[in-house]
Amino acid sequence: MRRLLFALCCAATSLAAQPSRAIIGLSGWPNKFPIEDVAVPFTLDAPLAKSYGAVKAAFAELKVPIDMDDPAGGLVGVQLTKAQNTFAGYRMSRIFDCGEKSTMGPNADSYRLTIVFLAVLDSLDASHTKLRVGFVASAVPNSGSRTEALQCGSTGVIEAKLVELASARLK
Length: 171
Description:
disordered N terminus, seven-stranded antiparallel beta sheet, about 170 residues, two-stranded antiparallel ribbon
């Protein structure tokens, strides 16, 4: 009986612990991490395939060229891109918090950023999709090196906009 219980516990643990679909490594961050660690969860009222198409279209509407397009794996977005001053039509300090220097203002506005922007989609049931949006960056001073890189967290603005655009396409 104990062996059976142990086997069931092990099986349940391995089913719950799904591997990440994207491991992120950015300068300024101490270790690589799964995108799910920084992702914001949402629910879309549509099946997986339709939701995937809507999220992909939302990236296009934001004018964010995607370099990851895996409908079978439920992963779409940008694995790594560089930007300065603006991204997807937003001023960097509106979408990222990279700290601030008192004389220069927000670091996000004056540093070079390396950005990861990924959406992970999973079916919840026949008519709902779980969407997790990961948006994170590292920032390097214009005259600095990668060893001076800072961690940048999202303010949540772009994730909300992506979901708004995708949801509008699902109506």
